[in-house]
Amino acid sequence: MQDIDICYNEAIGFSSIGHFENFTKYLFNISQKHENEQTKHNLYFCLENGEYKNIKEAIQVEFGKNYDDRKFREVAQKRLLQSVKTLQKPYTPYTQIKSDIFYMNFGVESTFDEIHQFVANNIQDIINFQPDEVKSMRKIFVFSALHLNQATPHLHRLFVLPKE
Question: Average pLDDT in the 89-101 region?
């Protein structure tokens, strides 16, 4: 597999809490429109105490034998909304939430299995990729969703900025 090309889209904000809630539905592929056979391979991480925690693994342990990918995504989406709403109490709702995205072009010769293996082996580097404008932002909450279920794998990051 050749080197990957990264196309970065700068951080944007949300126009309302409803806009943010709809965006989280997309992140977790809640609607059938964004769900497909590869959705189960998407990865979700939350930064806790300086370490990225795989949310899927934590919830899978909680559900045990009853674990199901759709149920996981629904629960995780609700927990993300609750976490952000809790953080937002001292802030103006939704205005301190930003999201950026970057697309990873692996080339036409790469198979899904090769891409998935590359991502699994390099997940920390992928999540930690930060252009200068993002590095300089003080963040109080970070969440990442790596979508492997679409034509071009891409990483969404949400972060809550402290009120200035």
Answer: 74
Q: Measuring CA to CA, which residue among 136, 154, 110, 145 is closest to residue 23?
A: 145
- Alpha carbon distance 7, 30 (integer Å): 25
Q: What is the CA radius of gyration of the chain?
A: 16
pLDDT tens-place string over residues 45-58: 887 777 778 888 87
What does the block give as tokens for 21? 């809630």
* Structure confidence at residue 1 (pLDDT): 44
Distance CA 76, CA 81 (A): 9
| The predicted structure's pLDDT at residue 151 | 82
Residue, of 74 and 65, whose pLDDT is higher: 74
Could you tell me where the DSSP H helices lie in 6-160? 17-27, 55-63, 69-88, 112-128, 132-135
- Is the CB of residue 106 less than 8 Å from the CB of residue 114? yes
Q: What is the pLDDT of residues 7-56, one digit of tens each?
A: 888 888 998 888 999 999 999 999 888 788 888 888 898 877 777 788 88
With CA atoms as reference, report the closest residue to 94 among 84, 79, 82, 103: 84
CA angle 12, 123, 96 (to 5 degrees): 25
- Measured distance CA(131)–CA(151) in Å, rounded: 24
